[in-house]
Amino acid sequence: MKTIIINASPRKNHNTAQLLKEAQKGAESVGAETEYIDLFDYTFTGCRSCLACKRRDGERNKCFWKDDLSPIVSRILEADAVIIGSPIYFGQPTASFRALWERLAFPVLSYDGAPISYYTGRLNVGFIWTMNATGDYYENGIKPALAVTESTAPMFFHGDVRSYAALDTLQVNDYSKYAMGAFDETAKKAHHEKQFPLDRQECFRMGAELSKWKRYWYSGGSPVKRVSGKFLLTMSGRNLRWSGRFRLQACFLKGGVQIPEKISVRSVKFRAVSCPVCICVFPGLQKKIIFWSG
Ligand SMILES: Cc1cc2nc3c(=O)[nH]c(=O)nc-3n(C[C@H](O)[C@H](O)[C@H](O)COP(=O)(O)O)c2cc1C
Question: Looking at CB atoms within 10 Å, which of 57, 158, 197, 219 has the fewest?
Answer without folding.
Answer: 57
